[in-house]
């Protein structure tokens, strides 16, 4: 009898849900299929394989609370807050085409690498056009956009949507979807300006996005879009851009592309237009063929060129402006095909000559320049010496660098002009009530070779992670302590030390780079040696064991090794005064004005007069790229701090950009690096919604209809909350000056308030309609009585 009882007990454990360690580096969901005295067999829910473990191997098998078939919509409602459960929930939802999941009000968006248009239709806009949808409908980016829009209108506060994640996470697409939603729910009063704001995205995407090994549509610049509202309608916008990747204009890695616009131009132009600009196919151009990747399977360059033309038309770019843009792009392609050869007339000098004069002629023609003027700038250096300019011939390497510098200057100047032109078109002409800002900035990057651009990009991501930590963890817990709440502190990964290592004065890496950039004889090697000397003992800094030109930094998202080759030149990014002079003298007024603006900036910083070549006064030197970027980043964080933030975390599902494929190891690494587990915990256990007693009483007084206007706001607050069922008791705490609530309680309060207000509105409508109908009835009755009286009078007279 005892044996039978034991056997039945073992069989009862068959089918039990467990987590098990398969050796892959992450836990896998499984079910027990067999159990003996010494062994337990588990079937993986990932691939159906059977894994066997010793019964006493308790570290590798633990109990699991099963999830619903489509996962959990909001992860703070999960009973199991383990790393495994969070990861598996995202996996289950992804398999069911549920790419969005909440952590309270924070949205986690996993990139499907495929555009499901039916998920973003007008029907979906109407479906989510409601602030109370978070718990009644599946998580969606439109719901987050709806909440942001409603908060701006109700709280009268500027909002900021911070979209972050690794390259390939879908940040650009998320930005476009939010903007599409805001445009769709915008009243029809300013439809033209709304359409122009929307069309700015595809235009800048063409000029600022490119294919990388991680992402077919990677943003190679950061943008911060502020959408301004007046009387609940969009009335204008402002766009700020950050750190365009200039090096991509002249070089890119294998299986990558230059900026989209070049390929779109060549695919979109017909034969006659190509002949007009002297163009042919992409593989013929050195600036386009280095990555051996001319086309993207998921992108039609010809179709996108038509979209670009449409955007320019809607944004009111003139025909002359459009033609100037195309001429500059074509000239850059011709510049890249200019080659040089050595001529050894003098044994002591490495002299060069142009091997492709046709390309020089095309460049000069397109840019409306003098042939000899451009040729001189490519082959000679101008040295200022009092009242005269001395010409020194370049060697081969210097000539190639000069060519590339001119190409980068042309493209980056054009890009800055485009941003300024868009801002001029969509600028605000009305008084502004509030704004919604959207930050779409380059994701964290770690390539086989990382340079100055990656250091700046990853520094920006460190700053955004700090901003996220500050709002979600630091400020949150500091306020709990200040308001004397019962709270057990949750630790989180603070990345302040990493930010200090990179940017803090006077010894941050970027500060050392700036110092070295001001010394004419400094080299990339001297910069590296100084970094090693200052930071060698820092736990976040890595010095290579071998004699390599690299250093490494332990970022929040992992270790990254940086190669210092070219750091100083990229940071200085100096454009020669004679080159600026040349383009300022172009017969094309639009191009000339672009560079005249640059000349004014240079003159203001350097005190340099271009016409005389003399220094007028001693002024500060032109800011370096890193200094300008650090200032822009600091201003950006300050601006966002003054707004009410909403966070969207974009997750890359795999490294090979395959649609509808989620690799658990790739997702888990991102969850760990961004502190997602701690985020779920603080959102579940914490009280992210807070009101002063006055605010709470004013907003929810309708839930206590018999209250006196003179009643203390704190008493009203406590009375309203005490009237809720006991299950809500743990969802709020009363502080010294504020009430703190969990999001689920706020949603319940909003729902109750909405029901009461709707019922009150219905009562008012019913009363007014009744009054109007009674008045109409009395009028009609009175009119009928008059008619009857007159008719009777007429009958009597007739008799």
Automatic annotation (TrEMBL):
Segments forming domain Myosin motor: 70-754
Entry keywords, A to Z: Actin-binding, ATP-binding, Membrane, Motor protein, Myosin, Nucleotide-binding, Transmembrane, Transmembrane helix
Has keyword Membrane?
Answer: yes
- Keyword Transmembrane helix tagged: yes
Single GO cellular component annotation?
Answer: cytoplasm
Region of interest: Actin-binding: 633-655
Indicate what this protein is called per its UniProt record.
Myosin motor domain-containing protein
Name the source organism.
Answer: Rotaria sordida
């Amino acid at each position: 009898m005892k044996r039978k009882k034991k056997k039945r007990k073992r069989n009862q454990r068959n089918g039990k849900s467990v987590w098990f360690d398969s050796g892959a580096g992450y836990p896998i969901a499984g079910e027990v299929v067999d159990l003996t005295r010494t062994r337990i067999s588990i079937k993986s829910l990932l691939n159906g394989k059977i894994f066997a473990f010793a019964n006493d191997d308790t570290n590798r098998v633990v109990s699991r609370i099963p999830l619903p078939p489509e996962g959990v919509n909001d992860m703070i409602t999960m009973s199991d807050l383990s790393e495994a459960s969070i990861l598996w929930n995202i996996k289950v939802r992804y398999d069911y085409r549920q790419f969005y999941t909440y952590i309270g009000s924070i949205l986690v968006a996993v990139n499907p690498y495929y555009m499901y248009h039916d998920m973003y239709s007008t029907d979906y806009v109407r479906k989510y056009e409601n602030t109370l949808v978070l718990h009644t409908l599946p998580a969606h980016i439109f719901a987050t956009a709806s909440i942001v829009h409603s908060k701006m209108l109700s709280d009268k506060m500027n909002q900021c949507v911070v979209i972050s994640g690794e390259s390939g996470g879908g940040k650009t697409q998320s930005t476009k979807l939010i903007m599409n939603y805001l445009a769709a729910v915008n009243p029809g009063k300013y439809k033209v300006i709304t359409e122009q704001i929307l069309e700015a995205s595809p235009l800048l995407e063409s000029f600022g996005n490119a294919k990388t090994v991680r992402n077919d549509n990677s943003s190679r610049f950061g943008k911060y879009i502020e959408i301004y509202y007046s009387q609940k309608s969009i009335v204008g916008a402002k766009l700020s851009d950050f750190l365009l990747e200039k090096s991509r204009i002249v070089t890119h890695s294998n299986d990558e592309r230059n900026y989209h616009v070049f390929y779109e131009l060549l695919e979109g132009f017909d034969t006659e237009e190509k002949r007009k600009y002297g163009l042919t196919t992409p593989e013929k151009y050195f600036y386009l063929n280095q990555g051996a990747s001319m086309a993207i399977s998921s992108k039609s360059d010809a179709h996108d060129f038509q979209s670009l033309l449409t955007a320019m038309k809607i944004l009111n770019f003139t025909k002359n402006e459009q033609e100037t843009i195309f001429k500059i792009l074509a000239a850059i392609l011709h510049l890249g095909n200019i080659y040089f050869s050595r001529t050894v007339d003098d044994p002591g000098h490495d002299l060069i000559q142009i091997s492709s004069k046709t390309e020089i002629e095309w460049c000069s023609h397109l840019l409306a320049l003098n042939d000899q003027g451009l040729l001189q700038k490519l082959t000679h250096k101008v040295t200022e010496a009092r009242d005269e300019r001395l010409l020194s011939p370049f060697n081969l390497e210097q000539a190639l660098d000069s060519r590339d510098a001119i190409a980068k200057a042309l493209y980056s100047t054009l890009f800055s002009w485009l941003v300024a032109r868009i801002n001029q078109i969509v600028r605000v002409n009305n008084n502004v009530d509030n704004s919604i800002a959207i930050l779409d900035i380059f994701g964290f990057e770690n390539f086989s070779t990382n340079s100055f651009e990656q250091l700046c990009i990853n520094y920006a991501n460190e700053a955004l992670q700090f901003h996220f930590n500050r709002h979600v963890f630091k400020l949150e817990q500091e306020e709990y302590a200040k308001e004397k709440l019962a709270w057990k502190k949750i630790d989180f990964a603070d990345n302040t030390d990493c930010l200090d290592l990179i940017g803090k004065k006077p010894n941050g890496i970027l500060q050392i780079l700036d110092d070295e950039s001001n010394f004419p004889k400094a080299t990339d090697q001297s910069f590296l040696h100084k970094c090693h000397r200052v930071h060698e003992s820092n736990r976040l800094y890595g010095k290579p064991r071998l004699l390599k030109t690299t250093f490494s930094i332990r970022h929040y998202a992992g270790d990254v090794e940086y190669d210092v080759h070219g750091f100083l030149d990229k940071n200085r990014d100096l454009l020669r005064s004679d080159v600026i002079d040349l383009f300022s003298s172009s017969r094309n007024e639009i191009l000339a004005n672009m560079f005249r603006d640059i000349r004014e900036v240079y003159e203001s910083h350097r005190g340099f007069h271009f016409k005389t070549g003399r220094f007028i006064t001693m002024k500060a030197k032109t800011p370096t790229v890193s200094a300008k970027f650090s200032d822009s980043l600091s201003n950006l964080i300050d601006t966002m701090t003054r707004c009410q933030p909403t966070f969207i975390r974009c997750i890359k599902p795999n490294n090979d950009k395959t649609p509808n494929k989620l690799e658990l190891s790739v997702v888990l690494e991102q969850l760990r690096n961004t502190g997602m587990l701690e985020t779920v915990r603080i959102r579940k256990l914490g009280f992210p919604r807070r009101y002063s007693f006055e605010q709470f009483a004013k907003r929810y007084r309708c839930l206590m209809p018999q209250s006196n206007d003179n009643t203390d706001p704190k008493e009203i607050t406590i009375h309203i909350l005490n009237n809720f069922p006991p299950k809500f008791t743990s969802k709020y705490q009363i502080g010294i000056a504020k009430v703190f609530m969990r999001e689920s309680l706020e949603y319940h309060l909003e729902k109750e308030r909405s029901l009461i207000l709707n019922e009150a509105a219905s009562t008012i409508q019913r009363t007014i309609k009744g009054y109007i109908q009674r008045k109409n009835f009395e009028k009609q009755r009175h009119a009928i009585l008059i008619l009857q009286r007159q008719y009777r009078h007429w009958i009597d007279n007739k008799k």
